[in-house]
Amino acid sequence: MERVAIDFIGPLPRTKQGNKYIMVIGDYFTKWTEAYPVEKIDAKTTAKELIDNFITRFGIPLLIHTDQGKNFESELFKEICIILGIEKTRTSIARPQSDGMI
User: Fold this and answer.
1) d(CA 88, CA 65)
2) Predicted local confidence at residue 96, as pLDDT
3) Can you give the residue ranges of the Integrase catalytic domain (predicted)?
4) Which residues 6+ apart lie within 8 Å of 87 measured at CB?
């Protein structure tokens, strides 16, 4: 999985485990999609889920495409991308054509 898109679904009704959102990661080439339940959509949770659940299973992607959410534009997320050698792209404001496949 070289090029992936990441986004969130929610808020949804809270589960018994306390989750309100679903983090969705999809591969552009294979269209393989993973979904991870999360409690919140802050930078720390986003980074942790990406590393613990996606990268450990599929390896480090070459490129991640996201929207301009605070969690994706945070210094933490940017630094993780730099350290892991991931190119990060994002959608343009008010231009839905630039949205990813997710």
Assistant:
1) 6
2) 55
3) 1-102
4) 62, 63, 64, 81
